[in-house]
């Protein structure tokens, strides 16, 4: 499925992290793919409210949790800069799909990073 939301289609996810050699591109690619799959799920399932959106973002956050080991194996980690960039992208996704009142902490509630 391709993304139909033009805001999302034009977004470079994790841009700040890609610009920093500390973060390995192959792992960032997996993170970007998680965010794109989240967008595809939102477009396919069309959550009717914040609780339904939080279920989808929670599942995506759990996928990011699994990436922590890959970051560490590559000599990196999901630290402050990465946490903020990832959280910002989650909020961007929510707002691009009309959930401007989403709480960023709720979007990534199951995070372990």
Task: Describe the secondary-structure layout.
Blueprint: H1 6-9, H2 15-18, H3 25-45, H4 50-73, H5 80-96, H6 104-107
Helix pairs in contact: 3-4
**Percentage of helical residues?**
55-70%
Topology as H/E string?
HHHHHH
Structural class, by secondary structure, is mainly alpha
Number of helices: 6
Low-confidence stretches: none
Mean pLDDT figure? 96
Structure, explained:
The protein is mainly α and 113 residues long. It has one domain (13-107). It contains 6 helices and no strands. Helix 3 packs antiparallel against helix 4. It is globular.
In brief:
It is built from 6 helices and no strands. With about 110 residues, the protein is an all-alpha fold. The termini are far apart.
Task: Give descriptors for this structure.
mainly alpha; 113 residues; single chain
């Amino acid at each position: 499925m391709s993304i139909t939301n033009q805001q999302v289609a034009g977004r470079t996810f994790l841009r700040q992290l890609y610009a920093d050699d500390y973060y390995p591109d192959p792992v960032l690619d997996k993170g970007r793919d998680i965010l794109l799959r989240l967008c595809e799920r939102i477009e396919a399932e069309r959550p009717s409210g914040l609780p339904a959106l939080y279920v989808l973002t929670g599942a995506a956050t759990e996928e990011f949790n699994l990436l922590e080991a890959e970051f560490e194996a590559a000599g990196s980690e999901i630290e402050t800069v990465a946490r903020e960039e990832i959280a910002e992208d989650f909020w961007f996704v929510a707002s691009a799909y009309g959930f401007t009142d989403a709480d960023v902490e709720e979007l990534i509630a199951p995070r372990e990073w």
